[in-house]
Write a structure and sequence with these properties.
By secondary structure, the protein is of the alpha/beta class. It has nine helices and eleven strands. Pfam families: HTH_1, LysR_substrate.
Length: about 290
Amino acid sequence: MELRHLKYFIAVAEELHFGRAAQRLQMAQPPLSHQIKQLENELDVLLFSRTKQRVELTKAGEVFLKRAYEILNRVHLACEEAKSIDRGEAGQLVLAFTGSIAFELLPLLLRRFQEQYPNINIVLRQLSSTEQMEALHDSSIHVGLLILPIESGSFHVEMLREEPFIVALPKTHRLATETEPIDVSILANEQFIMTPRKAGESYYDAIISLCQHAGFSPKKTQDALELHTALSFVASGIGIALLPSSIQFVKNDDIVYLQLKKSYTTCKIGAAWNKKETSPVVHSFISFLQETII
Protein backbone atom coordinates (compact mmCIF):
# COMPACT_ATOMS: atom_id res chain seq x y z
CA MET A 1 0.00 0.00 0.00
CA GLU A 2 1.24 3.47 -0.90
CA LEU A 3 0.07 6.95 0.03
CA ARG A 4 -1.42 7.37 -3.45
CA HIS A 5 -3.83 4.50 -2.69
CA LEU A 6 -5.13 6.45 0.31
CA LYS A 7 -5.52 9.60 -1.77
CA TYR A 8 -7.42 7.68 -4.47
CA PHE A 9 -9.62 6.03 -1.85
CA ILE A 10 -10.44 9.37 -0.17
CA ALA A 11 -11.37 10.98 -3.50
CA VAL A 12 -13.81 8.17 -4.34
CA ALA A 13 -15.18 8.12 -0.78
CA GLU A 14 -15.88 11.85 -0.88
CA GLU A 15 -17.36 11.89 -4.39
CA LEU A 16 -19.10 8.48 -4.17
CA HIS A 17 -18.66 8.41 -7.93
CA PHE A 18 -15.68 6.95 -9.80
CA GLY A 19 -16.04 9.28 -12.77
CA ARG A 20 -16.06 12.48 -10.69
CA ALA A 21 -13.23 11.17 -8.50
CA ALA A 22 -11.14 10.42 -11.60
CA GLN A 23 -11.78 13.93 -12.93
CA ARG A 24 -10.74 15.42 -9.57
CA LEU A 25 -7.54 13.35 -9.59
CA GLN A 26 -6.92 14.22 -13.24
CA MET A 27 -6.70 10.62 -14.31
CA ALA A 28 -8.80 8.16 -16.35
CA GLN A 29 -11.51 6.16 -14.60
CA PRO A 30 -10.32 2.60 -15.42
CA PRO A 31 -6.89 3.03 -13.75
CA LEU A 32 -8.62 4.54 -10.70
CA SER A 33 -11.02 1.59 -10.46
CA HIS A 34 -8.05 -0.76 -10.79
CA GLN A 35 -6.15 1.01 -7.94
CA ILE A 36 -9.16 0.82 -5.61
CA LYS A 37 -9.64 -2.86 -6.42
CA GLN A 38 -5.94 -3.42 -5.75
CA LEU A 39 -6.32 -1.72 -2.34
CA GLU A 40 -9.34 -3.87 -1.44
CA ASN A 41 -7.48 -7.03 -2.47
CA GLU A 42 -4.51 -6.09 -0.30
CA LEU A 43 -6.78 -5.41 2.69
CA ASP A 44 -8.98 -8.40 1.84
CA VAL A 45 -11.94 -6.11 2.60
CA LEU A 46 -14.64 -4.48 0.46
CA LEU A 47 -14.44 -0.73 1.00
CA PHE A 48 -17.22 0.21 -1.43
CA SER A 49 -20.59 -1.27 -2.24
CA ARG A 50 -21.06 -0.81 -5.99
CA THR A 51 -24.26 -0.96 -8.07
CA LYS A 52 -25.08 0.47 -11.46
CA GLN A 53 -26.90 3.35 -9.80
CA ARG A 54 -24.63 4.23 -6.88
CA VAL A 55 -21.37 3.80 -4.98
CA GLU A 56 -21.50 3.62 -1.18
CA LEU A 57 -18.97 3.08 1.58
CA THR A 58 -19.25 -0.18 3.47
CA LYS A 59 -18.94 -0.12 7.27
CA ALA A 60 -15.31 -1.17 6.87
CA GLY A 61 -14.89 1.63 4.32
CA GLU A 62 -16.25 4.24 6.76
CA VAL A 63 -13.71 3.21 9.41
CA PHE A 64 -10.89 3.08 6.85
CA LEU A 65 -11.79 6.59 5.62
CA LYS A 66 -11.44 8.00 9.12
CA ARG A 67 -8.00 6.40 9.54
CA ALA A 68 -6.91 7.43 6.05
CA TYR A 69 -7.61 11.07 6.92
CA GLU A 70 -5.54 10.69 10.10
CA ILE A 71 -2.64 9.06 8.23
CA LEU A 72 -2.45 11.72 5.51
CA ASN A 73 -2.74 14.47 8.11
CA ARG A 74 0.16 12.99 10.09
CA VAL A 75 2.23 12.67 6.92
CA HIS A 76 1.51 16.31 6.11
CA LEU A 77 2.51 17.38 9.64
CA ALA A 78 5.70 15.28 9.44
CA CYS A 79 6.63 16.97 6.15
CA GLU A 80 5.98 20.43 7.57
CA GLU A 81 7.99 19.68 10.72
CA ALA A 82 10.90 18.37 8.66
CA LYS A 83 10.86 21.50 6.51
CA SER A 84 10.67 23.71 9.64
CA ILE A 85 13.64 21.95 11.20
CA ASP A 86 15.61 22.26 7.96
CA ARG A 87 14.84 26.01 7.91
CA GLY A 88 15.87 26.34 11.57
CA GLU A 89 12.31 27.17 12.65
CA ALA A 90 11.80 24.12 14.87
CA GLY A 91 13.87 21.76 16.98
CA GLN A 92 15.88 22.01 20.18
CA LEU A 93 18.49 24.57 21.25
CA VAL A 94 20.72 23.84 24.25
CA LEU A 95 21.71 27.28 25.53
CA ALA A 96 24.18 27.89 28.37
CA PHE A 97 24.48 31.15 30.28
CA THR A 98 26.50 32.67 33.10
CA GLY A 99 24.84 34.11 36.18
CA SER A 100 25.89 37.62 35.20
CA ILE A 101 23.42 37.77 32.31
CA ALA A 102 20.48 36.17 34.12
CA PHE A 103 19.14 39.42 35.52
CA GLU A 104 18.23 41.42 32.42
CA LEU A 105 19.76 40.24 29.13
CA LEU A 106 18.74 36.56 29.29
CA PRO A 107 15.02 37.17 29.98
CA LEU A 108 14.96 39.75 27.17
CA LEU A 109 16.60 37.38 24.67
CA LEU A 110 14.43 34.41 25.60
CA ARG A 111 11.19 36.36 25.39
CA ARG A 112 11.94 37.84 21.97
CA PHE A 113 13.37 34.62 20.54
CA GLN A 114 10.36 32.55 21.62
CA GLU A 115 8.03 35.12 20.05
CA GLN A 116 9.90 34.78 16.76
CA TYR A 117 10.53 31.02 16.92
CA PRO A 118 7.71 29.45 18.99
CA ASN A 119 8.49 25.93 17.73
CA ILE A 120 12.08 25.86 18.99
CA ASN A 121 12.42 24.25 22.41
CA ILE A 122 15.16 25.92 24.47
CA VAL A 123 17.00 23.87 27.09
CA LEU A 124 18.81 26.19 29.51
CA ARG A 125 21.96 25.34 31.45
CA GLN A 126 23.64 27.71 33.90
CA LEU A 127 27.40 27.22 33.60
CA SER A 128 30.45 29.33 34.31
CA SER A 129 32.35 30.68 31.29
CA THR A 130 35.03 28.01 31.80
CA GLU A 131 32.44 25.23 31.96
CA GLN A 132 30.74 26.59 28.85
CA MET A 133 33.95 26.37 26.83
CA GLU A 134 34.36 22.74 27.87
CA ALA A 135 30.73 22.04 27.00
CA LEU A 136 31.15 23.65 23.57
CA HIS A 137 34.22 21.48 22.94
CA ASP A 138 32.32 18.28 23.71
CA SER A 139 29.13 19.49 21.96
CA SER A 140 26.92 19.13 25.05
CA ILE A 141 25.63 22.68 24.43
CA HIS A 142 24.93 24.53 21.19
CA VAL A 143 25.57 28.15 22.21
CA GLY A 144 27.17 29.74 25.27
CA LEU A 145 26.37 33.20 26.61
CA LEU A 146 29.48 34.06 28.61
CA ILE A 147 32.01 36.64 29.74
CA LEU A 148 34.60 37.76 27.19
CA PRO A 149 37.36 37.48 26.20
CA ILE A 150 37.84 33.75 25.70
CA GLU A 151 40.32 31.62 23.78
CA SER A 152 38.33 31.46 20.57
CA GLY A 153 40.37 29.26 18.23
CA SER A 154 37.60 26.66 17.95
CA PHE A 155 34.68 29.04 18.34
CA HIS A 156 32.85 31.83 16.61
CA VAL A 157 32.41 34.71 19.08
CA GLU A 158 30.12 37.74 18.95
CA MET A 159 30.03 40.44 21.62
CA LEU A 160 26.48 41.19 22.74
CA ARG A 161 26.83 43.78 25.46
CA GLU A 162 29.36 45.78 27.44
CA GLU A 163 28.29 47.10 30.82
CA PRO A 164 30.08 48.94 33.63
CA PHE A 165 30.69 47.55 37.08
CA ILE A 166 28.92 48.92 40.15
CA VAL A 167 29.57 48.27 43.84
CA ALA A 168 27.07 46.48 46.08
CA LEU A 169 27.24 47.51 49.77
CA PRO A 170 25.41 46.44 52.93
CA LYS A 171 22.85 49.11 53.85
CA THR A 172 24.78 49.65 57.11
CA HIS A 173 28.01 50.48 55.26
CA ARG A 174 29.56 53.91 55.83
CA LEU A 175 29.18 54.74 52.11
CA ALA A 176 25.58 53.56 51.83
CA THR A 177 24.20 57.10 52.09
CA GLU A 178 26.23 58.37 49.12
CA THR A 179 24.12 59.63 46.24
CA GLU A 180 26.86 60.39 43.72
CA PRO A 181 29.19 57.94 41.92
CA ILE A 182 32.21 57.02 44.02
CA ASP A 183 35.87 56.52 43.13
CA VAL A 184 37.01 52.90 43.20
CA SER A 185 40.11 53.91 45.17
CA ILE A 186 38.10 54.57 48.34
CA LEU A 187 37.30 50.84 48.46
CA ALA A 188 40.96 49.90 48.93
CA ASN A 189 40.55 48.81 52.58
CA GLU A 190 37.25 46.96 52.12
CA GLN A 191 36.66 43.23 52.37
CA PHE A 192 35.64 41.89 48.93
CA ILE A 193 33.31 39.03 48.05
CA MET A 194 34.49 37.59 44.72
CA THR A 195 33.85 34.71 42.38
CA PRO A 196 36.86 32.35 42.16
CA ARG A 197 39.01 32.68 39.03
CA LYS A 198 38.39 29.07 38.00
CA ALA A 199 34.67 29.89 37.66
CA GLY A 200 35.39 32.52 35.02
CA GLU A 201 38.84 33.89 34.31
CA SER A 202 37.72 36.93 32.29
CA TYR A 203 35.22 38.07 34.91
CA TYR A 204 37.70 37.64 37.77
CA ASP A 205 40.50 39.37 35.84
CA ALA A 206 38.23 42.32 34.98
CA ILE A 207 37.59 43.00 38.68
CA ILE A 208 41.28 42.66 39.56
CA SER A 209 42.14 45.06 36.71
CA LEU A 210 39.52 47.56 37.88
CA CYS A 211 41.00 47.64 41.38
CA GLN A 212 44.61 47.76 40.19
CA HIS A 213 43.80 50.76 37.98
CA ALA A 214 42.65 52.43 41.20
CA GLY A 215 45.97 51.59 42.88
CA PHE A 216 45.20 48.54 45.02
CA SER A 217 44.59 44.80 44.97
CA PRO A 218 41.26 43.71 46.48
CA LYS A 219 41.27 41.93 49.85
CA LYS A 220 39.10 38.87 49.37
CA THR A 221 37.13 37.78 52.42
CA GLN A 222 34.81 35.23 50.79
CA ASP A 223 34.36 33.25 47.56
CA ALA A 224 30.92 33.12 45.95
CA LEU A 225 30.34 30.85 42.97
CA GLU A 226 27.12 32.61 41.96
CA LEU A 227 26.30 36.32 41.85
CA HIS A 228 23.11 35.68 43.80
CA THR A 229 25.30 34.18 46.53
CA ALA A 230 27.57 37.22 46.44
CA LEU A 231 24.52 39.45 46.97
CA SER A 232 23.39 37.30 49.87
CA PHE A 233 26.82 37.69 51.52
CA VAL A 234 26.74 41.46 50.93
CA ALA A 235 23.29 41.69 52.51
CA SER A 236 24.56 39.83 55.57
CA GLY A 237 27.38 42.37 56.01
CA ILE A 238 30.29 40.03 55.23
CA GLY A 239 31.78 42.42 52.68
CA ILE A 240 31.21 44.33 49.45
CA ALA A 241 31.17 43.19 45.82
CA LEU A 242 31.97 44.68 42.42
CA LEU A 243 29.28 43.42 40.06
CA PRO A 244 27.87 44.09 36.56
CA SER A 245 25.43 47.02 36.57
CA SER A 246 22.51 44.79 35.49
CA ILE A 247 22.63 43.19 38.95
CA GLN A 248 20.60 46.21 40.11
CA PHE A 249 17.51 44.48 38.74
CA VAL A 250 17.75 42.30 41.86
CA LYS A 251 16.12 44.30 44.64
CA ASN A 252 17.15 43.73 48.25
CA ASP A 253 16.34 46.13 51.08
CA ASP A 254 19.61 45.21 52.82
CA ILE A 255 21.77 46.19 49.83
CA VAL A 256 22.72 49.58 48.34
CA TYR A 257 24.10 49.85 44.79
CA LEU A 258 26.49 52.69 43.92
CA GLN A 259 27.80 53.80 40.55
CA LEU A 260 31.56 54.14 40.03
CA LYS A 261 33.15 57.37 38.77
CA LYS A 262 35.71 55.85 36.42
CA SER A 263 35.26 52.28 35.30
CA TYR A 264 38.44 51.47 33.37
CA THR A 265 37.21 47.94 32.90
CA THR A 266 33.79 46.74 31.78
CA CYS A 267 31.95 43.42 31.85
CA LYS A 268 31.83 42.14 28.26
CA ILE A 269 29.14 39.60 27.48
CA GLY A 270 29.20 37.55 24.31
CA ALA A 271 27.90 34.50 22.48
CA ALA A 272 30.13 31.60 21.46
CA TRP A 273 29.42 28.55 19.31
CA ASN A 274 31.53 25.85 17.70
CA LYS A 275 32.93 26.65 14.24
CA LYS A 276 31.89 23.15 13.15
CA GLU A 277 28.27 23.70 14.21
CA THR A 278 25.82 22.87 11.40
CA SER A 279 22.45 22.90 13.18
CA PRO A 280 19.92 25.16 11.40
CA VAL A 281 18.42 25.98 14.82
CA VAL A 282 21.78 27.34 16.02
CA HIS A 283 22.15 29.48 12.91
CA SER A 284 18.62 30.82 13.46
CA PHE A 285 19.56 31.80 17.01
CA ILE A 286 22.80 33.50 15.94
CA SER A 287 20.98 35.38 13.16
CA PHE A 288 18.41 36.46 15.74
CA LEU A 289 21.18 37.75 18.04
CA GLN A 290 22.83 39.62 15.19
CA GLU A 291 19.57 41.27 14.15
CA THR A 292 18.31 42.00 17.68
CA ILE A 293 21.35 42.78 19.83
CA ILE A 294 24.61 43.12 17.97
